[in-house]
Specification:
Blueprint (H helix, E strand, L loop, with lengths): L3 H9 L3 H7 L1 E5 L1 H7 L6 E6 L1 H6 L1 H6 L4 E4 L2 H7 L8 E6 L14 E6 L4 H13 L4 E5 L8 H7 L7 E5 L1 H9 L5 E10 L9 E6 L7 H4 L4 E4 L15 H14 L2
Parallel strand pairs: 2-3, 5-6, 5-9, 6-7, 8-9, 8-10
Antiparallel strand pairs: 1-4, 2-4
């Protein structure tokens, strides 16, 4: 059984202001929670059905500072953020990371300028994890990384990729002074498949509808184009931002 106060608290974490005030976020789903248990993310408590707890007894036993609450689907349905309740829901502590810890020695960093869709942000975090990129720097207008839909879409990658929020224009301006190249995709850019690419730098991805904002656009030192290979004049006007990110990261890493 889960008390009404706990139900109210957990459901409130769907909103950013309550996540911020409580410094907590929700993670739900069998694979996602299983990935988070041994990670650096601190799980405060878990609500799960008996079968899930028994199946994961060994990993839970090693992390004995996690509060385990056995419950049933009747109560899990009251606290889920999904259409269909998962057999396990974890309440995790938000980790505040220092932006100063980023190093650009032979590495790439993704900068997100006003990404609004939680699914896109979650997918980009998952892509960063796949391509071995440890840091993503977001503008303050980018959707919250601890939004339940973002956490869900990362499929556990949120535990392995550092996500920061800052004044993105100022951050990029400071990096340019140190000689770091800044890449962005534009319709008037150079073909990504023929352009020389660095093994370190910042890759900027823009808002779903408006692309890269004017202030950030003026800071991009290397404009890239993902060419269209359609055989007719009737084709899609643009790529989804997470798809464009996948193509861009793949080409950077292919060169290595």
């Amino acid at each position: 059984m889960i008390s009404q106060n706990k139900i109210k608290l957990i459901n409130s974490l769907a909103k950013k202001k309550y996540r911020d005030s409580n410094q907590l976020f929700i993670a739900e789903g069998e694979k996602l929670v299983a990935d988070l248990i041994p990670s650096s993310i601190r799980i405060k408590c878990i609500y799960a059905c008996k079968e899930w707890i028994e199946e994961h007894h060994f990993s839970l036993h090693k992390e004995n500072n996690i509060e385990i609450n056995e419950t049933d689907f009747r109560y899990l349905k009251k606290i889920t953020q999904l259409k269909t309740a998962s057999p396990v829901i974890a309440i995790c502590e938000i980790t505040n990371k220092a932006l100063s810890s980023i190093s650009f020695d032979n590495s790439l960093c993704i900068a997100l300028d006003g990404i609004q869709d939680p699914g896109n942000l979650g997918t980009i975090i998952r892509l960063a994890d796949w391509f071995g990129i440890r840091n993503i720097v977001c503008s303050k207008t980018t959707v919250d990384v601890y939004n339940p839909k973002v956490v869900q879409a990362t499929m556990g990658a949120i535990a392995r990729v550092n996500v920061y929020y800052t004044d993105l224009e100022n951050f990029i301006s400071q990096q340019i002074k140190t000689g770091i190249p800044v890449y962005g995709t534009f319709l008037d850019g150079q073909n990504i498949y023929s352009k020389t690419l660095s093994k370190h730098g910042i890759i900027v991805m823009g808002n779903e509808g408006n692309g890269i904002s004017n202030g950030i656009k003026n800071l991009v030192t290397e404009k890239l184009l993902i060419p269209n290979f359609a055989n007719s004049d009737d084709y899609s006007e643009s790529l989804n931002v997470s798809t464009a990110t996948a193509i861009t990261l793949s080409e950077f890493k292919r060169r290595l």
